[in-house]
Amino acid sequence: MIKTQIFTVQGNTDVVDDVIFCRRLEFIGPQAQLVIKPKQGAPLGAPRMLKIITDVISMTLAGGVGEITYNLDGDYFPAYQLPLGNSGLDPETSAKNGDDGQPNFNQGPIPPADVASPNFFDPIDPLNTTAGAFPKAKDGGNGAAGGRGGKGVNGAHAPMVEIWLKQIDGDLTIDLRGQTGGKGGKGGNGQFGGQGEDGSNAVPGTEESWIGVPNPVCITQAGLPGDGGKGGNAGCGGDGGDGGNGGTVKIFHTGGVNLAKIHPHLQKGVGGPVGDGGNPGKGGAAGDTGLQLPPCKPALTSQNGADGSRCISEGRKSVSQPGADGLDGQYFTRVVSNIPQLPGLWP
């Protein structure tokens, strides 16, 4: 509990206590904000309440305006996620994005892309002089799928603020909007399919006719090269985080207080969007056809591997879902004959 004759709010003034008992709550200077912060040792997302008991709330020295708001997520999101111009306070920010999906295969050219095994491409042997067995060489390996992105963090629920007062000078905004849910994490990239093994070379030869004349013959046709491996599917983006609930404001006041000077903003937080899907892996190339030597007939060609599939990210069959919106907050007022008193502050 904070007990003082005058409690001043200047700039961003953090409050970690549950109760402020004062004779005068004084806002001073431009952009004066009383910011409700987490209690020391409290887990992230723990409910918060602040009770203010005072004779007067004055914004006279703050240009006639002041604000009560909150920041319960500890500013643990990276600064680059903040829209330009935000104060960093919860009602104006989104919760943290979900983690990226794992595995997340590199599709670089630098460093080289992750390719499934077996992969019979040999950069040291561009002519691919090694060949597979007859009648068909080995296929390249199929790429593994990228992992699904993690769910976005749920937006913070706004706290409850209870105020007892006799007089208000100036306009007081109480911004307890629920925080927007975090965006789902990005899906992982699929792995590239492996390249097929080269087909074996044709083996020609000769044989003698019945009159002793040598004739060219094909001893072994060229082998069929291996098919390319299928590219890995893209990982789907993670679900969006749920939006936080708007806060609750309770005003207990004596007769004559102008409640039109109090401006509560208690809207629900919007659910976070779905994370972006990863990129599918490319299919591997078929191996090269073995060397054709007459009189052997040409071998058939093999098939390149198909590219991986993208995540279904739209429509009713979508794998990933946006976060649910929070609930709107509530506002209550009640006239009282007097406000609580504390020995030492009130005669």
Describe this structure in a few short sentences.
The protein has 347 residues and is mostly beta strands.
Folded structure, characterized:
It contains no helices and 13 strands. The protein has strands at residues 2-15, 19-36, 49-53, 56-61, 65-70, 160-165, 167-169, 171-175, 203-208, 214-220, 248-253, 262-265, 330-335.
Key structural traits:
mainly beta; 347 residues; 0% helix; two-stranded antiparallel ribbon; single chain; 27% strand
Secondary-structure topology with pairs:
Elements: E1 2-15, E2 19-36, E3 49-53, E4 56-61, E5 65-70, E6 160-165, E7 167-169, E8 171-175, E9 203-208, E10 214-220, E11 248-253, E12 262-265, E13 330-335
Parallel strand pairs: 1-2, 2-3, 2-4, 2-5, 3-6, 4-7, 5-8, 6-11, 8-12, 11-13
Antiparallel strand pairs: 9-10
Total helices: the number is 0
Helicity, in percent?
under 10%
- Shape label: rod-shaped
Q: How much beta, percentage-wise?
A: 25-35%
Q: H/E order of the elements?
A: EEEEEEEEEEEEE
Based on DSSP secondary structure assignment, what is the total number of beta strands? 13
Q: Could you give a short account of the major beta sheet? A: 11 strands, parallel
| Arithmetic mean of pLDDT | 90
Structure class = mainly beta
| Residue runs with pLDDT of under 50 for 5 or more positions | 75-86
Gap from first CA to last CA: 20 Å
Quaternary structure state of the chains depicted: single chain
Rg, nearest Å: 35 Å
